[in-house]
Design brief:
By secondary structure, the chain is an all-alpha fold. The protein has helices at about 5, 15-25, 30-40, 45-50, 55-60, 70-75, 85-90, 95-105, 110-120, 125-130, 135-145, 150-160, 165-170, 175-185. The protein contains 14 helices and no strands. Helix 11 packs parallel to helix 13 (about 165-170). The radius of gyration is 22 Å and the shape is elongated.
């Protein structure tokens, strides 16, 4: 590498990752962003570049990356809109944080899938994110009354906006912590 190249290398190639991240925020050229995604040694820097990508095909390809943080960053990009792929990720990705990002993606609208994840995902944090998106109040009531996990129950209660259902749960539970959550939640409705 020549002296000129070393002295005047772009900031996105700086040795300090914090300098590279700051520079990425100024970059609009997707070719440069792609170069960063493909070559930067820091996953954090690569994820920062992914946030700025608008190419939907590239985002889809990034969901196949072996690094879960890269997959997560691609799914969290606002330009990631492939609902079918989100569903596939929810059903097959082994990383809970990737699934959590997929369930939070606003482009996932299929209530059947959201409901299924709310009931069956192996990870309680993924289930809680799914419960926040469930529109079926009867299912939320069933979860609030019958689930074994207190945090899952509380999430279901805090998602319900119907006072009649909350009162019904209040009447049908003996769990004081759940009763307290219901009373507090009703105060804010």
């Amino acid at each position: 590498m020549g002296l000129f190249t070393r002295i005047f290398k772009p900031k996105y190639k700086h040795n300090n990752p914090e300098v590279r991240i700051k520079e990425i925020k100024q970059i609009t050229d997707e070719t440069i962003l792609l170069e960063i995604i493909e070559t930067d040694p820091s996953t954090t820097v690569r994820c920062e570049a992914i946030k700025k990508i608008s190419d939907k095909k590239l985002l889809v390809n990034l969901t196949k990356n072996s690094n879960s943080l890269i997959r997560k960053a691609a799914i969290e990009n606002p330009n990631f809109t492939d609902e079918k792929l989100l569903i596939k990720i929810l059903k097959s990705d082994t990383d809970k944080d990737v699934r959590k990002s997929a369930i939070k993606n606003a482009n996932l609208k299929d209530q059947t899938v959201i409901t299924d994840i709310a009931k069956k995902d192996e990870n309680s944090l993924v289930r809680m994110e799914a419960i926040k998106r469930v529109s079926d109040n009867k299912l939320l009531e069933k979860i609030a009354l019958n689930d074994e996990n207190v945090l899952i129950k509380q999430t279901a209660i805090n998602t319900i906006r119907d006072e009649e259902i909350l009162l019904r749960i209040l009447q049908n539970t003996n769990d004081e912590s759940i009763r307290k959550v219901i009373v507090e939640h009703m105060h804010y409705l």
